[in-house]
Structures are given as C-alpha cells and as structure tokens.
Specification:
heterodimer; A: about 220 residues; mainly alpha; 7 helices; about 75% helix; B: about 290 residues; about 0% strand; globular
Chain lengths: ~220, ~290
Amino acid sequence: MNPWGEIILVFLILANLRLLGSSRLVGSIRVVAAQGAALGLLPLLSGGSGPIALRAAVIAAGTILLKGVIFPRLLLRTMRGVGVRHEMEPFVGYTSSLLAGFAGLAISFWIASRMPLAGRQIPALVVSTALFTILTGLFLIAARRTALNQVLGFLVLENGIYVFGLSAVEEVPLLVELGVLLDLFVAVFVMGIAIYHISREFEHVDVDELDRLKG
Amino acid sequence: MNLLLGILLAPLLSSLILRTKALVAGRQGPPWLQPYFDIAKLLQKGAVYSRTATGLFVAGPIGALSATLLAAALIPLGGCQASVSFEGDLFLFAGLLAAARFLSILAALDVGLSFEGMGASREALYGALAEPALFLALAAGARGSGSLSLSGIFASPLDGIAAPALALLAGALLVVALAECARIPFDDPATHLELTMVHEVMVLDHGGPDLAFIEYASSLKFWILGTLLGGFAMPIRIGGSLANALLGLGAVAALGVAIGAVESTMARLKLQRVPQLLVGAGVLAAVALVLGMR
C-alpha cells in the first residue's frame, strides 16, 4: 500500500466519523460525496499500464462522476423538494454515535487482524477500513429517522463493499463494475423519488412512522 | 534553554495572535510587547481581597503558576531535550496541568460568588472532556516511539508514527489546545459579556499581582500546548539542536498565526456543541492510536 492509498483510507475513516457526528443533511450529503470521490481515486493507485490502466481510469471516472457529482445533486434536489434540513431526533445522539463509531473502528481493526483471507495478501488497513465503512453505513440506517439519512447510509455501506471488493478481488470485469454503478444510480434515483412522494403524502420523512402504515 | 525560551517568549505568542487578528480586521493592533507591559503594570498594583475569601484565593494563582512552570520544564521544543526528562514524565505533565486547573477552580469557588462558580463548573467540564483527548494523543505518541517521556516521543516522531496518524494527532491536539486555553471556538478571550465567558469569569475577583500571575500562567500554558502541537505538526528533525529549536519556534509561530486566522473567521460554538467537539478530538486521537497499533 503506497502512502497516498493510506491517506485516502484514513480520509474514508474520518469521513465516516464526521457522518456519525453531524446533524445537518447538506453537510452529510457533501461528506458522502467527498467519500465517494476519494474512493474513485483508489483504483488509479494500483498502478499497471496499457489496458489495465485504461480500465482503472474508466472505473475511476465513472465512480467519481456518479458518487461525487450526480448522487449529491440528486439528493440535494430531493432535500430541497422535501424541505428537511436537519435530522430531528435521532435514535442515538451524535456524541454517543461518535463513541459507537470509535467502538466500531476498534472492532473492525480487531476483526481485520483475525480474519483469514484467501488469496493474495491484503493490507490490514484496507480490510478494517472497509469493515468500518460497512458498519457505519448500517449504523446510519439503523440509528437515524430521516429517510434521506437512510439513503446516505446505504451509499456508505456500498462504499465499504467497494473498498473491500477493490482489494479482495484481483480483477473485477469492467462490465460488472459498471453494472454495479448503474444499479446504484437507479437505486438512488428511485429512493429520491420515493422520499419525495412520502413527504408529499405524509408531510414528513420520518421512517419510524412508516411501520404503522395500513394497506 | 527550552524552559528559558518558554518563560521569555510565552506572552509574545498571544501578542502574535492579536496582531494576526488585527491584520485580518484591517487594524494596526497592539504593540508587540503589550502583554509584558500589562503584566508589569499589574505587578506594581496592590491587590484587594474580598472579606469572604480565604487563603485559598491567594494561593490559587501562585500555585497554578508554579505548576504550569514545572510543566513547562518538561516540554521539549522541536526535538530538543527538555530541561527535565525521565521515563514517565508525561503523566507528571498531565498531572501538573490538571493541578493548575484544579487550583484556579478552587480559587474561583473560594470567593463564594455564584457567577464564578458557574465559570468554574464550565472549566471543570471542559477539562474533564479535554483530558482524555490529551492522554490518548500522548498515548499514541508513546506507543509509536516506544518511550514514556515527552522528550522521547518528540525526539523523532516520523520514525515511529505514520504520517496520517501524525496529522490526526495534530488535529486532536489543536482542539485540546483551543479548549484548554479558552480560545475561540470554545471561549472568546476578548469578550467580557458575563454570560458567555468561561475562563475570564473565574478570574473576575483577582486583581493586581494575582491577576498578573494568572495572565502569565495562561500564556505559558498556551505556549506549552502550542509546543506539543508543533512537535506533532512539524515532525521533521534535522541535525543540530539550534536548528531544531529554530524549527520548533517556527512551528509555534505558525500555530499562532493559524489560531489568529481561526479566531478571525469563526464564531463561538454553542455550549451544547462543545462536548461533541471535544469527544471528536478524543476519537481522532484514538484513531491515531489504533492506526499505530496494527
């Protein structure tokens, strides 16, 4: 792992912690965008030349464009349409979320040092960052009420899986990679529309209220 | 040598911050030596003591100043050996800083003014939250360098600690330094609006030489934490103790300018947000520690 990769991974960890501690949705959306863009730089660092470098460049460009530009625009638009600016009353407070985040980080590092991985040698930092990002995504989905935060949690979760896939699998075919990105795009798109309709129907986007829906 | 530099130059650091703020605001700012003049003026005055105050009130500032001076003796400047250093001195260092805070809180409570009691309670809260972050940062440094003395940790941080972890440590210590020294965004040193003060409210009843001791101790504390922070933020060490000391001084000066810039551009945080920021600093330091563990 070269030093730049390490810096990017630490940045991912910090972005996760920032997400856990912030209530402002605009800020959270920007952080997720920055995280996605930083993630897009990772494949460029693996080196290689010729077709491999070209492939990495295509994936990087697609990731940065989609996660760094299009998703935040979609989400910001949804946010404006819905008129929600803050997470109102999260199930877990922000300071406790930060502490939980640190516990999650410690657990990720512990698991990463124990988990036997087949195949090539993967730096422990990569595995633990991926696990921590996945845990952060799950935590955001579980601990926040606003539907927008759940979408952000989903995106963070996907980012974590992406980091893991990038390091664990020698080479994902370009088509599969692009297909995943496309799926993600459709998912965020649909979620944005769904949130908009939920807010038009119920005048809030509190997912905790959704379990009392009647058919 | 280090101690002497600290004792002589500490008030100059607050002067540097004031000049930076003045520059940003388009003013000329106070003379460079103004803090020294202030202290000299205060030392010539007499003190007035409340009838309800006991000996603690007089002992507080003196005790706090001596504890801070002792802590300053343990601090290495830019990789130079500290005046006093031994295995485990980082615990003594943290203890001395805590003792200084404890004494000034006691002195504030001793007057019996409810208002100072409020300031004391806030100071205690900030201290309780900032200390874990300081300890975690020092622990990360100790873990990386394999040494339990401050001089050992700062001898060559780049050897033991990875660059990203160093940046995290510097960030965590910056928050700790701002909180401990009652700067913006935690406390506004320029304000004397009663309800917003934290540190200033504790020293309301002190005057004359006592106030001089307090002012001097707080600038010395700022110098101490600034040197610590500079040690992590500017980890490059070159041969020769003079060059190292100059580098360390440069780092502290850069920190002063940076804090001046922060103070000109930021507002105070809401009181409820303060614990969150300090916990965040603690988590940063903890992440640095975990990064070093692997």
